[in-house]
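User: Can you recover a sequence for this backbone? Please restate the input before giving your answer.

Assistant: Of course. Working from this structure:
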């Protein structure tokens, strides 16, 4: 899903349910990768993380694609 967003196929977020800190190291890594410019911060923001299903659904529903993406998914159709 994240790769497709990077390729401009879509601008949809995806969610990860964080359970007991299982994904903490992965998200720290992704933050470092974005901070060093290996991944655009806008793409890093596509990953929505929450500790409850309800909060995750809310985070996904509240997501708005950034206006700064260099592509628009409709251009690919």
């Amino acid at each position: 899903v994240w790769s497709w967003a990077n390729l401009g196929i879509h601008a949809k977020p995806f969610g990860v349910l964080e359970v007991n800190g299982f994904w903490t190291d992965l998200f720290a890594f992704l933050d470092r990768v974005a901070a060093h410019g290996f991944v655009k911060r806008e793409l890093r923001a596509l990953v929505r993380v929450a500790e409850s299903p309800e909060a995750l659904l809310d985070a996904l529903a509240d997501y708005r694609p950034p206006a700064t993406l260099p592509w628009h998914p409709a251009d690919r159709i």
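That completes the design. The longest strand covers residues 14-17.
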